[in-house]
Design goal:
single chain, 386 residues, mainly beta, five-stranded mixed sheet, 35 strands, 47% strand
């Protein structure tokens, strides 16, 4: 009890420290800039940011020491701070489900409430390889089974002593995070297979015996929604599959192996074609053999989009704003101190952090006369861009 109380007091002190920031330099801004919606400097001690994840109204900053800072996406306020795993272990991306934050580690599924209290911890007998998907029936994850072979497992959080509801054997390791849509689990493995089963492990794509086969490993995460199931394969194709039967609705042939996760927005699928750039493909009506609307060289990741721009990660961690319709580069940020970025598929806010723990939420300046904090360049160079 004393240890728990001490942990909560320390966390509260850290939160208070995170909220105290110097007043930003407010100035009148011109278009082709980025302005801060908010900034917060986290007290990371001897650690540095490792990843940022945007989830609904929350932002999660993971550090190299596996501390997790949960922040409000609109205000930047810190909600809680937890140690998700011991240093050297793995803390995987968070998932929100029915008021809980689930954070997988090497061999556990840890459940936290919105105040950061751990409410449950499910220890599996097998190592966890993928991120997780969850619904009211269970939590689904790729594991390396001690019984032999890689598997997809359904976990029942209400039964911590016997958590496996079911497992099925896959021919390849499952590092791709699965997805759930309308009660069907879609998962993929590095043998190129894409599986579709319901919550009771029944095959959903009966004509395909539950499996769609690509011709290369699948390492990127699966995305599933009404418009399709999106899978990127090292066979060089991005597939959009019909969620009901697994048939190909359309495919994009990049000509190069695809290893990264597609980012799916309301109108567009963005995929990184390594060493060639980020490609944008229309989601809506189009040909079976889709062509990229554009490919922007020297970019590696989709970050966010608004009604005018798509924001991509460029060389030296620069933020590249391109015209959504044409891919024409409109402006590129000048600062080089940002080290981690979130993928935000819901709006035009860019989330990034410096190695020293300054977290920034930024948007594009669209018209003359907007007032705010400039995040276009590094602080020492700000005067040159005002």
């Amino acid at each position: 009890m004393r240890k728990t109380l001490l942990t909560l007091l320390v966390s509260a002190a850290l939160v208070a420290g995170c909220q105290s920031n110097k007043e930003p330099a407010i100035t009148e801004l011109s278009p082709n800039n980025l302005r801060a919606v908010w900034t917060r400097t986290l007290d990371l001690k001897d650690a540095a940011p490792r990843e940022i994840y945007a989830r609904d109204n929350m932002l999660f900053v993971y550090t190299t020491q596996n501390m997790v800072y949960q922040m409000d996406r609109k205000s930047g306020d810190v909600g809680f701070i937890i140690r998700a795993a011991s240093p050297g272990a793995q803390a995987k991306p968070p998932v929100l489900h029915e008021g809980s934050v689930i954070i997988p580690t090497d061999q556990t599924l840890d459940y936290y409430n919105t105040k950061g209290y751990r409410t449950a911890s499910i220890k599996l007998k097998d190592p966890i390889r993928s991120g997780i998907a969850t619904d009211k029936y269970g939590t689904y994850v790729g594991i390396d089974s001690g019984s032999g072979g890689a598997r997809i497992a359904s976990i029942d959080a209400s039964s911590p002593n016997s958590p496996y509801r079911w497992q099925f054997l896959t021919k390849g390791v499952v590092v791709s995070t699965p997805a759930i849509y309308e009660g069907v689990l879609f998962s993929a493995s590095d043998d190129g297979n894409v599986y579709a089963v319901d919550s009771d492990r029944n095959e959903a794509w009966t004509a395909l015996k539950g499996v769609f086969k690509t011709d290369g490993p699948v390492h990127g995460d699966v995305t599933a929604e009404k418009s399709g199931v999106y899978v990127a394969s090292a066979d060089s194709k991005l597939y959009c599959l019909n969620p009901r039967d697994g048939k190909i609705l359309w495919q994009y042939y990049s000509g190069f192996p695809l290893f990264d996760s597609p980012a799916v927005t309301a109108t567009t699928v963005y995929i990184n074609v390594r060493d060639h750039g980020v490609a944008a493909i229309d989601k809506g009506n189009g040909e079976y053999e889709r062509h990229a609307r554009w490919v922007v060289p020297d970019t590696t990741r989709f970050l966010a989009e608004d009604d005018q721009y798509a924001f991509l990660l460029g060389k030296n961690n620069a933020i590249v704003a391109v015209d959504k319709k044409t891919g024409e580069v409109k402006f590129t940020s000048k600062r080089t101190d940002l080290v981690v970025f979130a993928v935000n598929t819901t709006d035009g806010v860019i989330y990034a952090a410096t190695a020293k723990g300054k977290v920034i939420a930024a948007v594009a300046v669209k018209r003359h006369g907007e007032v705010g904090e400039l995040v276009w360049a590094e602080p020492a160079d700000m005067a040159a861009y005002n």
